[in-house]
Design brief:
Length: about 180
């Protein structure tokens, strides 16, 4: 009860736009007798959290939250959120940023040189890129089960998500249907 009341009191201080990328109520925990708040990422596919130990000088620092949000949500989205006044305003902006719709990933942001990010794709972005590749290169849906493809995609990151052939098939149909509307 006391932890909850203390959490509610300092919750008013969590008004930076970066908090919009995390669940509004953090978990309160203890590690070796030290109290911390763990802010869980609000991205659908992410299970990670950022801990703030309350007995440190930088207990209110949001730099680790910034780093993680850029991984899950992308630098562009975090930059847009940072331009807002507070977390409530930022939440309205990001609510549609990663809505799980595969067609969102196909929107062009302008013409110019293709660049490559050093950040790993989210699950939605992976699905979108594979759908684009399969459709543009006329690859079979089962290519995602190919041993060579799996090796290329998972080397150095064995946990990397690769959709099933059935998922790719459904997503290709979905994108096709939406482009016809």
């Amino acid at each position: 009860w006391i932890s909850t009341m203390m959490g509610r009191a300092i919750e008013k201080e969590w008004n930076s736009p970066i908090y919009a990328f995390y669940h509004p109520v953090p978990d309160i925990g203890y590690h070796e007798g030290r109290c911390y708040h763990e802010f869980k990422c609000a991205a659908t596919e992410c299970k990670k959290g950022v801990q703030h130990f309350l007995d440190k000088k930088d207990a209110k620092s949001t730099s680790n939250m910034q780093k993680h949000a850029k991984i899950c949500w992308g630098e562009e989205t975090v930059k847009l959120a940072d331009e807002t006044k507070n977390s409530q305003e930022a939440r309205t902006i990001i609510s549609g940023a990663k809505d799980g719709s595969i067609t969102v990933s196909f929107k062009r942001t302008g013409k110019g040189k293709v660049t490559y990010s050093h950040w790993q794709h989210t699950r939605t972005e992976t699905k979108a890129e594979i759908v684009r590749w399969v459709a543009e290169s006329l690859r079979p849906f089962t290519i995602v089960k190919d041993r060579g493809f799996q090796s290329l995609m998972k080397t150095g990151r064995p946990e990397y998500y690769i959709p099933s052939p059935l998922t790719v098939l459904c997503d290709v149909k979905l994108v096709f249907a939406r482009t016809r509307q």
